Amino acid sequence: MSEFSSELLNNFPTTYTTNGIGEQAQISFAFGYGSGVLKQQQDIKKTANQNQVDLILTVNNSFRFHEENLKLNPLHYSFLRHFGPSTITRVQETKGARIYFNPYIKFNNDNNTLYKYGIISRKHLIRDLLDWETLYVAGRLQKPVRVIHIDENDQDLIYALRTNLSSALHVALLLLPEEFTLKDLFLKITSLSYQGDFRMIIGENKNKISNIVLPQIDLFIEQYSNLITTDSYLHWNKIRTADTIVKQDVTPTAIFKRLLGLPKYVIYNIMESTKFKTRQYQDTEEVIRKLCVSTQRTEKIESAVRSIVKRSSLTQTCKGLVTAGFLRSTRYALEKLKKMIR
Length: 342
Description:
This protein is an alpha+beta fold. It is built from 13 helices and ten strands.
């Protein structure tokens, strides 16, 4: 796997000035994810990194970042660079999953590795983490990642990151039976951001979810251990192995508490489907109380999550045809197909 540190961020704009007041950091949070960063099951026998390294940069001001990055790294962009930072920012923040990717990039200090980096604004990342508006970046952060940089003073971002993990745990537990293993739990959490993703049908390895979880089970346990051990509705022997059996309280009180932890857009989709069937408006508390005793609770939650992922994955893929350009998009699609049939 690729070794990298905060020095990687030296390839990007570092600061910008706001109204002449003073300099602010361009990037508040950056992380690497995927098979180019953390080993997956199909990579176990590889001796060298053959995967593109995926990065996501969270920026405080998208326009200012693109304005400087176009000067620093103009060839990272597709033909959209000719339209300037305003157009690029508008495409990033109003289309797809509100993230802009530049794929197949080589940096001067690492000419042997290909990178793909995405830019998302801090405000849109926090919204996705808290509300699951697109579950695109939030979904990636529900799995182990390699943090390159984070602003430790940004308490809103840190709170949102924790809330996203808590939401993922609540949703997964609502979809699991009374008794399960830690491996079952992490497989379910990982599957959330792939439900409804059309790329799981065309373009992804069919065993992608288990390929992610099995080699990284210790990282998953570390990532979720605090939430699991402090959850009063979970009962287990505290032995942290993949096959450790966990029992959860499935009383109405426990289920109601978990339902209260559902993100905004999951609740919204459930309410919309209920409204469509009954043709009557129901408030959030009423929907949650009915869902608590519904025999179709699992199906409704899965459908709500699937709807979020389906929309964002499709629109972001279409957006990628423009932001990456035709040749790089074709190359990316072909490599995904190779993974699928491997």
